[in-house]
Design a protein that fits this description.
The chain has 18 helices and 2 strands. With 486 residues, it is mostly helical. It is globular, with a radius of gyration of 22 Å.
Length: 486
């Protein structure tokens, strides 16, 4: 069995020209950058900044964001080279198929499936919470059974997923326009919050900027970080180590820039625009995150920040309660685009897997009018709707993190492999300092992965095992590579 057979870059590019499986090229560098901002900027900017400042880094949380951005930047440079060299739908799955082989590519695709489906459902549930809160502040409270802390069926979450599914089916350009409008709203809210917050910043709140380190309570059992179980390393709050510990947490606020690569096949000038979209969106989001973190710790002393709604409560503490409603609107706008682009990314990854025959090939047919993989998009929308409406997802949310980091790690290694196996390929964007930079990127991702709990690793391994069974039961026998169609 040749489970490490690769699909040539040339064949991947030829597959994009098949009439039944040809996606329409409508996206520009601006569209891709806005897609990146749309999926990266979610509730993290309103919640995570204060939580991490209070519990882990103090006012130095701004440095933690910079550290996390550097780690993401390493992976982003690797993604940029791949996306410009192989501008085909599927992102890390497609890159792995060209470098590491079919079975590793399947595992990555299966991993991305978990990441995006689960993330879309988790974020839609978060959207529902903010929407219910906003309705309540307007005197239009929703019943607890449909939108409370523990609803019987989460109606708002299901409705937003179904609406966004319709937008995605209707075409990539419509999706990008909707995304542009909503991203403009949430960025405007963020900028307004930053500017308004500057008037209430007190210099004394920045002292000490790096609080003295202190040991945190050790977590035992399956909830313990893997690094603690393997090496006896326990987390430390504050100090220099606290800054890096916080970076491991706020890293997840940046997750999403990789989804820009899934739209490679629908980009007019992919060799030029994909690197710009990936790196540009990451840079803009880093500036926003650092600015918000500096404002929130300047408005209220770090050890007095709220954990659930730090930014809103910081404004309330200085007598500006109007900001809470504004922040809710920004969060709703933010989460809307996150859900939509996660579903977009998942549909393109599955589209590439179906086109290769690893999943039913009929699902990869493109709608003749809309030019989108409509069947897959509807299936993904219905599954995400069911997850959002009926499943408790809190305990599974960390699977999104480990799945993303695993994809980053594989892409980093893949850059080195493709440089060695296909040095002849034209690369309009080249990752600098190969192999040093990709190796550093892979090690950074691995470090963040081992900081996740043991139970998250166990769930991840179970999901991977299920994927392996499905590959050998169906994918291997139906693969187009197996049929000799290179």
């Amino acid at each position: 069995m040749d489970i490490f057979r690769t699909k040539s870059v040339e064949q991947s590019l030829r597959d994009t020209e098949e009439p039944e499986h040809r996606l329409r090229k409508r996206l520009t560098a601006v569209d891709l950058t806005v897609f990146g901002i749309g999926v990266i900027v979610g509730t993290g900017i309103f919640v995570l900044t204060g939580k991490v400042a209070k519990e882990t880094a103090g006012p130095a949380v701004a440095i933690s964001f910079v550290v996390a951005a550097v780690v993401c930047g390493l992976a982003a440079l690797c993604y940029a080279e791949f996306a410009s060299t192989i501008p085909v739908a599927g992102s890390a799955y497609t890159f792995s198929m060209a470098t590491l082989g079919e079975f590793p590519a399947w595992i990555i695709g299966w991993d991305l499936m978990l990441e995006m489906a689960l993330a879309g459902a988790v974020v839609s549930v978060g959207w529902s919470g903010y929407f219910a809160s906003l309705m309540s502040s307007l005197g239009l409270g929703l019943p607890d059974w449909m939108a409370g802390d523990d609803p019987v069926i989460n109606i708002p979450a299901m409705v937003i997923v179904l609406i966004l599914t319709g937008v995605l089916v209707a075409g990539i350009k419509l999706s990008s326009r909707v995304n542009l409008v909503i991203v403009a709203i949430k960025v405007a809210v963020i900028l307004l919050v930053i500017v308004a917050g500057l008037f209430f910043v007190k210099a004394a709140n920045y002292t000490p900027f790096v609080p003295a380190p202190k040991a945190t309570e050790e977590v035992g059992g399956l909830a313990a970080p893997l690094i603690q179980v393997l090496f006896g390393v326990t987390p430390v709050a504050y100090g220099a180590i606290g800054i890096f510990s916080a970076a491991a947490i706020v890293f997840f606020a940046f997750i999403g820039f990789d989804i820009v690569a899934t739209a490679a096949e629908e980009t007019v000038e992919p060799q030029r625009d994909l690197p710009r979209g990936i790196i540009g969106s990451l840079a803009i989001c880093t500036v926003l995150y650092v600015a918000v973190s500096l404002v929130v710790v300047g408005m209220q002393r770090y050890d007095q920040l709220s954990v659930k709604a730090p930014l809103a409560d910081a404004f309330t503490a200085v007598g500006q309660s109007w900001a809470a409603t504004l922040i809710s609107i920004g969060a709703i706008a933010g989460l809307t685009t996150v859900v939509m682009i996660l579903m977009l990314g998942q549909s393109r990854v599955l589209f590439a897997m179906c086109r290769d025959g690893l999943l039913p090939r009929g699902l990869s047919k493109v709608h003749p009018r809309f030019g989108t993989p409509a069947r897959l998009t509807v299936i993904i929308g219905l599954v995400t709707t069911a997850l959002a409406g009926f499943v408790s997802l809190g305990a599974l949310a960390e699977l999104v993190n480990i799945g993303t980091l695993f994809a980053f790690l594989v892409v980093s290694i893949g850059v080195i492999v493709l440089r060695r196996t296909r040095p002849d390929l034209h690369r309009s964007f080249r990752t600098p300092m190969v192999p040093a930079l990709p190796i550093l990127s892979a090690l950074a991702c691995l470090y963040l992965m081992v900081n996740l709990p043991v139970e998250t690793w166990l769930r991840f391994l179970v999901w991977m095992a299920l994927g392996a069974v499905l590959y050998f039961a169906y994918g291997y026998r139906h693969s187009r590579v197996e049929a000799g169609k290179r």
